[in-house]
Amino acid sequence: xxxxxxxxxxxxxxxxxxxxxxxxxxxxxxxxxxxxxxxxxxxxxxxxxxxxxxxxxxxxxxxxxxxxxxxxxxxxxxxxxxxxxxxxxxxxxxxxxxxxxxxxxxxxxxxxxxxxxxxxxxxxxxxxxxxxxxxxxxxxxxxxxxxxxxxxxxxxxxxxxxxxxxxxxxxxxxxxxxxxxxxxxxxxxxxxxxxxxxxxxxxxxxxxxxxxxxxxxxxxxxxxxxxxxxxxxxxxxxxxxxxxxxxxxxxxxxxxxxxxxxxxxxxxxxxxxxxxxxxxxxxxxxxxxxxxx
Amino acid sequence: xxxxxxxxxxxxxxxxxxxxxxxxxxxxxxxxxxxxxxxxxxxxxxxxxxxxxxxxxxxxxxxxxxxxxxxxxxxxxxxxxxxxxxxxxxxxxxxxxxxxxxxxxxxxxxxxxxxxxxxxxxxxxxxxxxxxxxxxxxxxxxxxxxxxxxxxxxxxxxxxxxxxxxxxxxxxxxxxxxxx
Lengths: 293, 180
Known about the structure:
By secondary structure, chain A is mainly beta. Chain A has helices spanning 2-14, 20-33, 260-265, and strands at 37-38, 61-72, 86-95, 100-107, 112-122, 125-126, 132-142, 159-170, 175-186, 197-208, 213-222, 234-243, 246-253, 277-287. In chain A, strand 4 and strand 5 (112-122) form a beta hairpin. An 8-stranded antiparallel barrel of chain B has the order 1-2-3-5-6-7-8-9. Chain B is mainly β. Chains A and B meet through helix 1 and helix 2 of A and helix 1, strand 2, strand 3, strand 4 and helix 2 of B.
């Protein structure tokens, strides 16, 4: 009998949990406490090419952006294939919270100031929300002389607004797509019969070629009844190249301006004729507030 | 009667053989030092357990819980180097080799040798590192400092940022346990 009891005791200790069990228990605990697994880095930076992407700058981060477009490449050797001409937008973007970012910019093209706010409403999560959704509202002011100084001009005549909804999904590590329904509002237009609101549907995506290089596409289709007769749809093809704190974006586009009004509703380049600009955006981020404090 | 005696003895046997200490907010931090840039990150949600009877010691870490001084570093760490979506966890599963020298009922700092399997970025290596088990006022904690080579765990650093990320990373472990 004593022998039997001893046997049971020995058996008890022999079959007691192997080392693996501790780790299994820990991994179970870790999985339980894990919050929603949000999709990160759907795009490399806050701009797809000309327009906004679903990405925000992180809270407490200041992003200094230099965006540059040369002239049309089809102007030939006399204009060094467009490189003689340049327009530039200098911008400062800042992340206020995880969901809200704001930005200011000054464009040489039409001497324009712009300001925007972008707010993230939905965040794509693994096993949860299937897509991310943000809204962008921006205001633009033309600061040059009035187009027609002989008529009564008001400050509000210089103002333009745009509203966009960005709907994006990161389908895989390498492929992200985005839709951007957009409205651009003009306070003042050339004639009473000209529309004040341009409506467009944008679509774009990025396709990763390697860990730090991606191919980006962006196209804004203007609804035929809600566009200016002289403008073309904006098309852009570009590459994002990431090097630590910088993101370089190189692109070809038929749009000259780099704000919603100037590229969605006032693109002047006819792609079929070769009216294409070469350009680049450079982003450099500075951490103003340490996220751990 | 006999049967109940056996059950009592069995229960006594199992409880005697598992005195487990546990934490879900241990700390693991790392430090990469180069002339160009120092990078440090800390994870304060480390899961760890120590069985003082058997000497088993285990850690589980969610890679996305490392916090950096710059948001972009954190994004690159997860996106480019650790591939956290594919490989969300890092684990250690091992034993305190010189368990006899540790008495969790007596205050003191016990130098221990730990051996086991360390898994980082999906690569598992057999490792042995020195550490300390500290018992103070009945509270048990574990501390360790060691180094790992990124190349050992198949973490690739592209040449453009090679000067900013050290090949050998200093790891610091600091866990305060509660009896489970």
